[in-house]
Automatic annotation (TrEMBL):
CDD domains: NAT_SF (cd04301). The lineage of its organism: Archaea, Methanobacteriati, Methanobacteriota, Stenosarchaea group, Methanomicrobia. Residues 129-279 form the N-acetyltransferase domain. It is an enzyme of class 2 (transferase). It comes from Methanoplanus limicola DSM 2279. InterPro entries: Acyl_CoA_acyltransferase, cNMP-bd_dom, GNAT_AblB, GNAT_dom. GO terms for molecular function: N-acetyltransferase activity. It holds the Pfam family Acetyltransf_1. Keywords: Acyltransferase, Transferase. This is Beta-lysine acetyltransferase. Its EC number is 2.3.1.-.
Amino acid sequence: MSPDSLTEIGNSLIQHGNLNSRIYIMKMGEDDPSNLISETEKLASENGYGKIFGKIPEVKAGYFRDAGYTEEAFVPEFFRGRENAVFLSRFLSDERKISKTWEKEDEILRKCLERRSKKRENKALPEGLTVKVAGEEDILSLCRHFAAVFETYPFPVDDPDFIRKSIDEGTVYLIVKRGDEIIAASSAEADYDYKNAEMTDFAVSPAARGMGIAGYLLREMEKIMKERGIILFYTIARSLEAPMNYTFAGAGYSYAGRLLNNTNICGSFESMNVWYKKI
């Protein structure tokens, strides 16, 4: 299935498509919220999508609530360290509203919150491994790595043109190598206007898991983003993927909420936990 596409409605950036059967309002512009709501609902209806969600400034959240949207997550001081973000969703199918795994998701979250209160040792990168910021010479091997780790993914990270464009726009990809082979990768997708960055695309090869590499990548990305003026980090992590949630909880991130049946990743729709950290 083709990856979802990026487009604009007015001056708002959205992603939509059949892969995730959703519309994602990634960055809301200064347009009339009523027009954005109307146009996204029209697009969703035409394509039979199951969900619309977005990161909405709190001052504009009322327009969406009046249109039937519900709050799934809340991140304080998300925009420029001043304005709060509300993750608002509208479910367009009954099936999309139901989680069959909520008990397991809640159990993982409970353990994460317990771990957050405990001091955690930061592991060094294991001997024999190296880390670097991915450059042009790494793009093809990085795409092959993402394709090997993810059966499906909400963004086309196996497409060299997509990776190249995102790097040009300020996203930082970190890669961990054993010799010439990439065994782990991640990215920090920065919004320099709003001074926040999504810590995402963590992809560790099965043979390299359990060595603390994801935590190491997270710390390195935070250092780079701080140097670039970013003051808030967040992630949208698979709620059933315990190690990744443990990584963010252990790094001092706060839980913001859960996005129900939000993302087609590794072959099926999964709910996603939102975590954030203000510096």
